[in-house]
Amino acid sequence: MTGLEYEIVLERYERELAKFEAKHPHHCRRCGGAGMIIVHENLGPTGGSYGAKACPVCIGSGFCPLCGAELVSDEDTDAGKCTTCGWTEGMSSVTVSFPPAPEPPL
């Protein structure tokens, strides 16, 4: 990717980010509204592995990652859900969370 192409992609990202933040001004800054964070487990000389766990800032405190309202437990699925914005655990983070930043050119 050239510097000019990156600038175009970065401008698009900044517009998407502004839209997301306007729609979800109280989203969790730690997980970007996904409710999950990526963790790395160091396995020593054999390497490591990546996994996902509930965000300790929002989910761990019982708050919605998108709007900050208190979560209620869904008795049917045992998952948290937000009665304010409709977020539920297991919701596709790709469609509702903070847009990923573009990689800068090398």
List the helices and strands and how they pair.
Blueprint: H1 3-23, E1 36-42, E2 48-54, E3 72-73, E4 80-81, H2 93-96
Antiparallel strand pairs: 1-2, 3-4
Your description of this structure?
It is flat and about 50 Å long. With 106 residues, the protein is an alpha+beta fold. The longest helix is centred in the first third of the chain and has 21 residues, at 3-23. It has helices at 3-23, 93-96, and strands at 36-42, 48-54, 72-73, 80-81. The strands form 2 sheets. It has a two-stranded antiparallel ribbon. A two-stranded antiparallel ribbon has the order 3-4. The chain has a domain at 26-96.
Helical percentage: 10-25%
- Total DSSP helices: 2
What fraction of the residues are assigned to beta strands by DSSP?
15-25%
Order of helices and strands: HEEEEH
Radius of gyration: 17 Å
What's the shape? flat
Low-pLDDT windows of residues: none
Helix-strand category: alpha+beta
Count of extended strands:
4
Terminal residue distance: 8 Å
Mean pLDDT: 82
Profile the largest sheet. 2 strands, antiparallel
List the strand order in the largest sheet. 1-2
